[in-house]
Design goal:
The complex is a heterodimer of chains A (about 180) and B (about 280). Chain A is α/β, with parallel strands linked by helices. Chain A has a single domain, classed as Fe-S hydro-lyase, tartrate dehydratase beta-type, catalytic domain (fumarase, Alpha-Beta Barrel). In chain A, about 20% of the residues lie in helices and about 25% in strands. Chain A has five helices and seven strands; from the N terminus they run βαβαβαβαβαββ. Chain A is globular. The mean pLDDT of chain A is about 95. Chain B has about 280 residues and is of the alpha/beta class. Chain B has two domains: about 1-20 and about 65-145, no CATH class; about 145-270, 60s Ribosomal Protein L30, Chain: A. Chain B has eight helices and ten strands. In chain B, helix 1 (about 5-20) crosses helix 4 (about 90-105) and helix 2 runs antiparallel to helix 3 (about 40-60). The longest helix of chain B has 20 residues, at about 40-60. The chains are: A alpha/beta (about 180), B alpha/beta (about 280). Chains A and B meet through helix 5 of A and helix 3 and helix 6 of B. Chain B: Belongs to the class-I fumarase family.
Chain lengths: ~180, ~280
């Protein structure tokens, strides 16, 4: 398992080298978007309108941070469960999105899209919201302010610690539950 | 009769919301530390290390442990010799929630189920009332995050399925949830009652300490049996493999209809945020 330092925007070369289990420290600009924001993004696409940020080479972080207390750029900011964004992810990958960041399993079409469009799914540690916020040095709402915690934020990150869960070659890191050992098979 | 002012309830509830979201319970920390010693896989150790570092950081900075500060759930025991003065008990608990989520910079996650419009203040809370003998008011708070809650299920088994059926359903549920609910999780199992009561007692079981032992030795043995079987699944911290898939299993059992065997599995994330106050 290798360790990489990558910068945004991400290129096909950046992504193609990654294998499930690799550790990546990401620096640059990433965008927050979760359930309601994804619906709005897809509505914009359907209407033929421009998105609030450029998907090309982009990384979307599935996060709804807690409010920033005085003196900090952001509150706690750990990942939310990713499968809820699976109905939108293949389309966004097809339009140039290179990485999504979250926790939990992805569905088969989303995993296939990562292979088709040389993209990746990173895991961040769920529940480590205070710790992960330390890697976010700046955060500004750029769209859908009315969604509150679900608004789209442009965030500057420095050495954001990520783990490659699904790579662009069909590899996946998650353990397969051993039902036999658990005595139910 | 003993009189309790709603203003005291508001303050106590607000304080609990903040401290629960920023301070990892001592029993959870102890269990994570023992899991750290048991785990051999580097990824499992790294996840637990990050969770412990996160807890230290949250304590020092007063940032919430997790950005998902949960929907506020309360179990309230009202002594029958208690009189609430200054307003309504439910309103006071909601007001305390509003105050705590604002004061603590906690994320407000309550929204309309269809329009998804955020109510903006973390309310309404989900409140379960119970009436008990005595002159005390006990309020237990639980921050119930969406990721873990979504992995919970209720089912109605046939009585003939018995313990084997219960065991199979619970283990399968944890297996299917996999990495989604932020393992290592705590599993509340509600057996009996009715459809809705099974779910309620499954959740109420999550108020117990991780290191307690069920007073009924037979149920205590069943909790251990489930815990060992689930940990044998090898899902591990964050689903990356390992020996620690659950930190604990808490069974609550109550009588049910002779035709039924209601079963509920309520999944709680590793930080198991809950606290109680007695007024």
């Amino acid at each position: 398992m290798a360790e990489y330092k990558l910068n945004t925007p991400l290129t096909d070369q950046d992504i193609a080298q990654l294998k499930a289990g690799d550790v990546v420290f990401l620096t640059g600009t990433i965008y927050s978007a979760r359930d309601a924001a994804h619906k709005k993004l897809v509505d914009l696409l359907d209407a033929g309108k421009e998105l609030p940020f450029d998907l090309k080479g982009a990384a979307i972080y599935y996060v709804g941070p807690s409010p920033a207390p005085p003196g900090r750029p952001i509150g706690a900011a750990g990942p939310t469960t990713s499968y809820r964004m699976d109905s939108y992810a293949p389309r966004l990958y097809s339009l140039g999105l290179k990485a999504t960041i979250g926790k939990g399993k992805r569905d088969a079409p989303t995993r296939q899209a990562m292979q088709d469009y040389t993209a990746v799914y990173f895991g961040a540690t769920g529940g480590a919201g205070a710790l992960l916020s330390n890697s976010i040095v700046e955060s500004n709402v750029i769209a859908f302010d009315e969604l509150g915690p679900e608004a789209i934020r442009e965030m500057k990150v420095e050495d954001f610690p990520l783990l490659v869960i699904n790579d662009s070659h069909g590899g996946e890191l998650y353990a397969v539950p051993d039902r036999k050992a658990a005595g139910i098979e | 009769m003993r009189t309790i002012q709603t203003s005291d309830i508001v303050d106590a509830v607000a304080k609990m919301c903040v401290s629960s979201n920023t301070e990892l319970p001592a029993d959870v920390r102890a269990r994570l530390e023992s899991a750290m010693a048991e785990e051999t896989s580097p990824s499992a150790k790294e996840v637990i290390r990050q969770l412990l570092e996160n807890a230290d950081l949250a304590f020092d900075t007063k940032l919430p442990l997790c950005q998902d500060c949960g929907l506020a759930v309360y179990f309230v025991e009202v002594g029958d010799e208690v009189r609430i003065e200054g307003g309504n008990l439910r309103d006071a608990i909601n007001e305390g929630t509003r105050k705590g989520y604002a004061d603590g910079y906690l994320r407000k996650s309550a929204c309309d189920p269809l329009s998804r419009a955020n109510t903006g203040d973390g309310t309404p809370a989900v409140i379960h009332f119970d009436f008990v003998p005595g002159d005390k008011l006990k309020i237990s708070y639980m921050a119930k995050g969406g990721g873990a809650e979504n992995m919970s299920r209720v089912t109605m088994l046939a009585p003939a399925q018995g313990w084997e059926g219960i065991k199979k359903f619970v283990i399968n549920r944890v297996a299917e949830a996999g990495p989604n609910p932020c393992p290592p999780t705590v599993i509340g199992v509600g057996i009996g009652g009715t459809f809705e009561h099974a779910a309620k007692i499954a959740k109420r079981g999550l108020l117990r300490k991780l290191d307690d032992t069920h007073p009924d030795p037979e149920i205590a043995a069943k909790e251990k049996e489930l815990e060992d079987a689930i940990n044998a699944l090898g899902i591990g911290p964050m689903g990356l493999g390992g020996k620690t898939t659950v930190l604990g299993v808490k069974i609550t059992m109550e009588p049910c209809h002779l035709a039924s065997l209601p079963l509920a599995v309520n999944v709680q994330c590793h930080s198991q945020r809950h606290e109680e106050v007695v007024l």
